[in-house]
Amino acid sequence: MNIEEFYSLFLQANKVTIDSRKIGFNDIFMAFSGENFNAATLAQKAIADGALAVIVEQKDYEDKERNIFYVPSTLGFLQALAVYHRNQLNIPVIGLTGSNGKTTTKELIHEVLSQKFNVQYTLGNLNNHIGVPLTILSIKPEHEIAVVEMGANHQKEIELLCTISQPNIGYITNFGKAHLEGFGGFEGVIKGKSELYDYLKAHEETILVNENDPIQIEKTEHYHPKITFGKNTSNYNFSLFSEEHFVGLMYGDEKVISKLTGEYNFTNLCAAVSLGLHFDIDFDKIKLAIENYVPTNMRSQIVKKENTTLVLDTYNANPSSMAVSLKNFVTFEGSKTIIIGDMLELGEETEKEHKNILELAQSLNFDTIITVGKNFKHINASSTSFESTGELIDYLKLNRIQSDNVLLKGSRGISLEKAIDFI
Predict the structure, then answer these.
(1) CA neighbor of 10 nearest in space, from 184, 136, 106
(2) CB-based contacts of 57: which residues, under 8 Å, 6+ apart?
(3) What are phi and psi of 188, to 5 degrees?
(4) How far apart are CA 312 and CA 294, in angstroms?
(5) Distance (Å, rounded) from C-alpha 64 to C-alpha 51?
(6) CA distance 212 to 417
(7) What pLDDT score does 163 carry?
(8) In sequence order, what are the beta bridge partners of 305?
(9) pLDDT tens for residues 156-176?
């Protein structure tokens, strides 16, 4: 199937999906197949359910009369279609990556830019080699700007995602100890994430730079065009302030307070506000967007439960984000219990990094330290160390936490949020 020929069909579609359960009328279904399932077997049913077209990678299932088309690789076709569509678009695309804070920053940028523009942005966590093409293909004629989150766990992945999304403005939130196994250590993280810079420089596009980050300064030195925030020499100068548990910023005499906890979210706020100012959005509207944004995605989320304040940060964890979460949580007033889960994909650094975090937690003198996961269990012999969230729940059923504040922080695979109902 030729991309140019198929594109006219794509323009008639409502959306592109890879999930057979979410096929709606006039949708395009990309039939991805795994080791144990052949999605091409659903092609005829998808058409019967109202799909406009289906792409399959098994020749036997092709039926051109019913708009079921064979391609050698569904993934390759999806990506090529996204590139073709991107080349037809004449709107700014903002690309962002980083070790921590990508999704929160993306959400904040979307809220701010939506005060002036019709914005399309990455939904949920669709930030990989499949999610980014789907995001690009979701951009419709009415959209005026797009925000694309790009995730990676190995080198060359950001490079690929940049060739698909072709960002006009790019931002790296930070360089942290995430996916060390795939990147080959911290230097590998820096190299892999900097592939966004490489793309932007090669195409003379704009880089958003946090000038309080020495790595960002080094990687973008002498480069233009760029938007900067942080230091007195920056385009936009912000100062940090907080109210109760919430982080905010000051811009001149103006105060903006978010519903996010943790000073580590300060730069996320700065990035969103900087882009709002760059696109000439009134500061009053930027302030409104920030102050009305309520996190609901288990990232820096504060939940009140009876007399207890819960801090939910269970969507992901790595040594960098874990350390700043603990240091932020220790500033809360009242008694404090931490429930920390394993940090995954650390490779050879696994034991060392878990020891470092456990030692940090102990040095901060929390009232109770609870660990969950085999990695923490291996180094923590206390009675409040559990191999799984299921074991933790069994413990919580018999041992109610009495602390005023409880932090839950762990990698996605640990699913600490399942314990919330038992706190």
Answers:
(1) 136
(2) 31, 33, 40, 70, 71, 72, 73, 74
(3) -65, -35
(4) 13
(5) 14
(6) 33
(7) 98
(8) 308
(9) 999 999 999 999 999 999 997
Q: Is 369 helix (H, G, I), strand (E, B) or coil?
A: strand
* Residue 42: predicted pLDDT: 92
The amino acid that residue 64 corresponds to is: K
Please choose, from the candidates 118, 171, 168, the residue with its C-alpha nearest in 3D space to the C-alpha of residue 149: 171
CA 353 and chain centroid, separation: 22
Instruction: Look up the pTM and report it.
Output: 0.86
Give me 107's structure tokens: 């959400």
Cα separation values, 61 from 43, 67, 306, Å? 8, 11, 56
Q: How far apart are CA 301 and CA 292, in angstroms?
A: 14
Q: Is 72 exposed, middle or buried (0-12, 13-18, 19+ CB in 10 A)?
A: exposed
Predicted local distance difference test score (pLDDT) of residue 269: 97
What is the per-residue DSSP string for 240-302? Answer: EEEETTEEEEEETTEEEEEEEESGGGHHHHHHHHHHHHHTT--HHHHHHHHHH----SSSSEE
Query: DSSP string covering 387-416, please?
Result: SSHHHHHHHHHHS----SEEEEE--GGG-G
Token representation of residue 95: 């690309």
pLDDT at 283: 97
Strands 308-313 and 301-305: antiparallel
Which residues of the chain carry a pLDDT beneath 50? none
Of 391, 365, 388, 367, nearest in space to 376 by CA: 388
